Amino acid sequence: MASAEQLKALLKSHLSGDDSHFYSVAMQVAAHEAKRGHGKLALELRDLIDAAKLKASKSELNSKPTPLNKPQGELANLLSVSYPQSRLSDMVLDQSIEGSLNRIIKEQRFFGKIKQHGLSPRRKLLLVGPPGTGKTMTASALAGELGVPLFSVRLDSLITKFMGETAAKLRQIFDAISNVRGIYFFDEFDAIGSQRGQANDVGEIRRVLNSFLQMLEHDNSNSVIIAATNHPEALDYALFRRFDDMIQYGLPNEEQVTSILKSRLAAFKPKRLAWKKVATAAIGMSYAEISKAIDESLKDAIIHDKTSVEEVDLLSMLEERRLISGKLVNKNNHELDNNGKPIPR
User: Fold this and answer.
1) Which H, E and C letters describe 126-139, residue by residue?
2) Alpha carbons 149 and 82: distance in angstroms, whole number
3) Which of 21-25, 193-197, 289-293 bottoms out in mean pLDDT, i.e. has the lowest?
4) 156 closest CA partner among 190, 191, 131, 126
């Protein structure tokens, strides 16, 4: 049986929450029993210890962590925290994008199991594509699916003109990434990830990028790091190999636009609506622009006590949203450039 000292050590480590020491002492007890010829007991003890370790690992990954106690001090200015309820099913995605995101979710849910075999699940993602195509929504949906907080990095507070200060703040963020599991979202990432050596390059930004590259490469935390940009061509080439996956987003096609329309108009669905006509009118617009146009149509219907959205109102709102976004179209529904010429699709 365990000695008096081993029993005291087990109790002390349990009370202090020191799991590592608890398992170490427990293994010593198992080894002691094996030496005394109690092989079956030693084997049972080891199996119990292994099962406890596995259960603790799963519990740690699946529990809902406290979001840094609402980050205090300078960290509060660098990170904004939320617990999104979004899901992938709330989004209209290409099959390839949906497949990539589901694979990431599956690997994260089996994080401990993958780690036990010396492998690393995907957890460093680069999202690229035009504004309003779903990059920010993806960060929210992943946080919702995994049940972890979403930490959005505030670039306006991160980047300063003082030498070394931005890199020091970045270090704080990566310390948080290691300490609290969550989704850490760097939006408009090209602000710190632009190519080194460009004509407009400044020394401080170059130092920040070098720091980010080093921190990202050496990060072995359980958190998911997501960087998003509308300008992948501006990113430094060294960044791409530091990410586990790059996912490209695009504007919705006619089928996807129709899916958005039917989904968001479910409660106010018109009896007669030329879906193809409306979807064609929305081609060239982003998910966000189309959603805003639909929402404006819904509000108008609610204000006027209508039970459904009228086609003419929906088309009008789409055109209004297109003008607001600066995307002009000709009579053949081709997007026009600043010179009034059609932009090839």
Assistant:
1) EEECCCCCCHHHHH
2) 6
3) 193-197
4) 191
Determine the average pLDDT of the residues in 120-139: 92
254 or 190: which leads in pLDDT: 254
pLDDT at 17: 63
Helix (H, G, I), strand (E, B) or coil at 48: helix
Token digits for 334? 């081709």
Instruction: Indicate the SS3 state at residue 194.
Output: strand
Task: State residue 342's pLDDT score.
Answer: 47
With a pLDDT cut of 70, the percent of the chain lying above it is: 75
CA distance 331 to 129: 27
H/E stretch holding 234: none
CA 24 to chain centroid, in Å, comes to: 36
Q: How far, in Å, CA of 27 to CA of 48, rounded?
A: 10
Decide if 319 contacts 297 (C-beta within 8 A): no
What distances in angstroms separate CA 55 from CA 48, 51, 109, 134, 271, one per listed residue?
10, 6, 14, 35, 54
Across 69-73, 194-198, 281-285, 341-345, which has the greatest mean pLDDT? 281-285
pTM over 0.85, yes/no: no
**β-sheet bridge partners, residue 342:** 336
CB 234 within 8 A of CB 195: yes
- Rounded to whole angstroms, what are the CA distances from 227 to 77, 86, 138, 181, 222? 19, 19, 11, 16, 16
Cα–Cα distance, 90 to 82 (Å, whole number): 18
Q: Which two tokens stand for residue 295?
A: 């929402």
Edge-first strand listing for the sheet containing 79-82: 79-82, 150-153, 183-186, 224-229, 124-128, 245-248
Q: Residue 345 has what pLDDT? A: 44
Q: Where are the beta strands (DSSP E) in the chain?
A: 79-82, 124-128, 150-153, 183-186, 224-229, 245-248
State both tokens at 258: 């129709």
CB-based contact 272:278 (threshold 8 Å): no
pLDDT band at 54 (very low <50, low <70, confident <90, very high): low
Dig out the tokens for 81 from the structure: 């925290």
